[in-house]
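Technical note accompanying the year-one report. For the benefit of new consortium partners, we illustrate the data format agreed upon in the data management plan: each record pairs a sequence with a structure-token string. No post-processing was applied to the example shown here.
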Amino acid sequence: MSRSIDEIERPDGIAFSYKIPSDPTDKELQFVRQLGISKVYTWLEDDQANYAYISELSDRLATHGLELSNAGTLRLSKSASIHLAYPDRDKIIDEFKEFISDLKRAGVHTTTFTWEPDCVQSTENMKGRGDSITRAVELEALKKQPPTREGNYSHEQIWDNFAYFMREIMPVAESVGIRLSLHPNDPPMPDINGVPCLIYNRQCYDRAFEIADSDWLGMEFCCGCWLEGGDQFGNILEDIEKYVSAGKVFIVHFRNVSSPLPNFEESFLDDGYMNMHTVMETFINAGFRGNMTLDHSPSMAYPMAEKAYAIGYMNALRQSLSKG
């Protein structure tokens, strides 16, 4: 029996979340609390992706005043077997079903997946402001990289594989009451390394939501991917309003970049081409209620300094706009 998406308890507005290791130290958890954050997410190792471990981790986090609100595994969330219909696809999908059931039993209500069998793609790291180290993509260099998978795949095959996965996984997600949050391909291009991408513009999201036909499929609204794609992806401010109003934004990835494709570098929040004050304001005015997390940031000279810098910046934006 399907459950109502309204049963998911959501924050009264924007709540910041933070990525933690899957086996965090007490000092790492103390740092999160010092940032003023109470919600965390993690990527679990395969031997941790079970009810016993997730429940134990959730209980431990609770003693630090933290809630595990989102968890995933890279093997399942970015599975080439599922995305490219390898012979073991049904076996991996069954494991995904068991995993999301375990998540819900342990009190976690959201998991993430991306149609990226080869994960996030980049061309090189570069030096940013103050010699910080930052991820970069040069489109022509990326196009010259060799294929990562044997065989030829069409976009329609990729969409057929997505539809197959939705038919299998969504009834389980609806039954147990767990949200599936779909992230765009990064960088957002029609094809990367010989493999067609699924989500590289807003029209792709619309098609995915139509196929799933379920309130339990939503998006990780990745500001970075929207900005990387520029107008080819969609108008970021208009799309925030559209998808928040439709109840399709489960998680926000807050990130800025130097410019749209063909070339970009990931930047500090105050150093990219987008005014992130306006982005935060649009989420608030649209009535977004959910988790917003810092996504990809240039490194700084001292460990974790970039995290503290960015979270402080985000918090100042939120507070100034909420009070205003």
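Partners are asked to follow this layout when depositing records. The chain has one domain: 5-323.
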